[in-house]
Write a structure and sequence with these properties.
The protein contains three helices and four strands. By secondary structure, it is α+β, with helices and mostly antiparallel strands.
Amino acid sequence: MALYEHVVISRQDISPQQAEALNDQIKALIEEGGGAVAKIEYWGLRNLTYRIKKNRKGHYSLLAIDAPPAAVKEMERQLSLNEDVLRTLTVRVDELDLELSPILARRDREREPRRDDFQS
């Protein structure tokens, strides 16, 4: 099977729970096609660089997928019909990166207190 990274941007006016449900729907589509989803990361509501379909923000999600090309094609077809999805990008990769993505890693670093904050 082939390895893919898939990014989905969904509309700003859906709730985070609905964005997570969309991720579950994508996972179900891939599993029906004989593939597997190795990782799902919800990046949250983020600003768009430019407006897409009159939206200034979007819910971003990243999925690491191991699936046959037919399953990925069907997933892309289903997402193109979904009104909540603004954009998708699927990239075939040589190996899946199962570590925390740079976006989430940066967010975790920002939450941790810095060492020099505790020194007097």
